[in-house]
Amino acid sequence: MKLKKYVSILLLLFATSFAFSQVKFEAKVSKSKLGINERLRVDFEMNKDGDNFNPPSFSGFSVVGGPNQSVSNSWINGVRSFKKTYSYFLAPKKRGNFTITQATIVIDGETYKTTPIKVVVTAAIDKPKDPNDPNYIASETIHLVAEVSKSNPYLNEAITVVYKLYVSPSTGVDNWHEIDSPRYNDFWSQTIDTKGQKVENGTYKGEEYRFLVLRKAVLYPQKTGKLNIEPLSLDITVQVPSNRRDIFGNRMMTRVHKTVSAGNKTINVKPLPEAGKPIDFTGAVGDFSFNVSTSKTELNASESLQTKVEVKGKGNLKLFNLPKIALPSSLEVYEPEHVENVRTNLSGMQGSISDTYTVVPQYKGKYPIPNISFSYFDLKTESYKRLSSKEIVIDVLEGPLNNAVQTGEETSIGSAKQRVVLNNDQFAFIKTKTNIESISQNYFFKTPLFWSALLLPFLVIPIAIIIRKKKATRDADVFGNRIRKADKLAKKYLSNAKKALGKKEAFYIALEKALHNYLKAKLHIETSDLSKDKIQVLLTEKGVEAEVIKDFNAILESCELARYTPITIVTMQEDYNKAAQTISLIDKQAR
After folding, report:
1. What pTM, to 2 d.p., does this model score?
2. Are 357 and 324 in contact (CB under 8 A)?
């Protein structure tokens, strides 16, 4: 009898130890069907500690919380139980059927995997309004709003978008980060600096709120019709009051994650009226003044003067071309220097743009600079306006006379008819005497050419050895080869840009690729890191002058603006030359 009792006890202990030695590793979800506006909790549980836990990819979901780790140890009737859990909180990205794939962990040298779990995401559901639910409280007290200044602007009329985060006084925000930034397709855009913004008091739907301005942008629509402004989305850690109270009776706060979005905004862009549109209209919209001036009106031949064509005011200053001046052929004119002195704030672009021509007269006389005109669309009166300059007369006091003008002959543009003067020695180059010399028979043996051919192999062998060593050293330089390869690629794209001169879109695509590949080689960064601020910092650290960095960024801006701005082949040639010069300067200055 006693023997049976001992055997039973031993079997019970063996069964208990065997059950405990079995490793369990499984995945559990809070629900298998949820709305797109709900959250899913996934727990990975194990009854024995392990190493190298590897979660699944959670395809179709965004991780909004976790991994949170919890461990519990307990002894019940002398039996030890252990449980370790990794918890994740997921937000669905879209509706559909998804699978939480396998997670893996290594326990006692063996790899264990969970079983895949299927989850169905449906359309958004109406959540019950539970005043004690932290998620419901957060949704009612946190609001992200996009305020658009005008919903029906004209083409190329400035509008502003201001993103404000409204927070109820009873709620707090620990931190936030952008999970989806808006891309302003079909707009010329300029982001306004919001650093140093302070929390302000205001109202939202008639209730008292605090708000913070997160982002400001000025947009100039480049197409007519209905255009979409993409939403800004944030992931926020919110502190909301709970039902628990501390020892002093104050309500304790609970942290929850909340995804908020400003929502899509649609604006209806009106086309500019066709009635009364001037022939020379190039797309200027706003309120402008126009002036043509010269640095001097009296000078001598071969001296130079500057003629400046300038537009000042408020409007889309960077998005149209200035009118060109027409000068007599006796005045030599160089390509203009384009200068932009434009600042952008919430009211749009303001400042001036100008083209400055260098003019050099060749002959004595008086030369008129004819008046030119500039037309724009005035938003206040919703009509076209034309501004004209006054005629300017250039008086060249000293210099040679233009013979064609003096004799009354007609002069073609850029040249004058002149009488051909014959020279008496015009046939002096023809030889009339010859020197005949006898040709003696020469032999190749022992000639300088013979000795050169004989000794050449002995000279070539050491040179070949040196070249081979240098080639081996160069081949071993992986980093240097990468830079040289990228430089060749940049030159290739520059050559492609040169071939595409006159084709705006192809030219600026090739030019932008060349600049990006050059930077990737020079600064050792990837395309995703090519932000203006990052380029500024890295080039400054390498000792490149600020003016060269400014020129480089200006070329990149030209590539971006080219999609929306009328561009001439002269401007393309200037941008190409400036790009080549700037790359050369960076190579010389960078350490």
Report:
1. 0.51
2. no
Which residues touch 218 (CB under 8 Å, ≥6 apart)? 158, 159, 160, 189, 190, 192, 344, 345, 346, 348, 349
Contact 166, 143 (CB under 8 A): yes
Q: Are 285 and 315 in contact (CB under 8 A)?
A: yes
Range 286-403: architecture per CATH: Sandwich (2.60)
List phi, psi (to 5°) of 559.
-65, -40
Backbone angles phi, psi at 311, to 5 degrees: -120, 130
For 149-271, list the strands marked E by DSSP.
159-167, 172-180, 187-192, 200-204, 207-221, 225-229, 233-245, 251-261, 265-269
DSSP 22-61: S--EEEEES-SEEETTS-EEEEEEESS--EEEE----TTE
Q: Tell me if residue 240 falls in helix, strand or coil.
A: strand
Distance in angstroms (rounded) separating the CA atoms of residues 584 and 588: 6
C-alpha dist (Å) from residue 242 to 128, 133, 169, 509: 17, 8, 15, 56
CATH of domain 20-122: 2.60.40.740
Look up the CATH architecture of domain 479-589: Up-down Bundle (1.20)
Q: What does the DSSP 8-state code read for residue 154?
A: B
The pLDDT of residue 47 is above 50: yes
**pLDDT tens profile 338-377:** 999 999 988 899 999 999 999 999 888 999 999 999 999 9
The strand pair at 172-180 and 200-204 is best described as unpaired
Q: Which two tokens stand for residue 125?
A: 């559901």
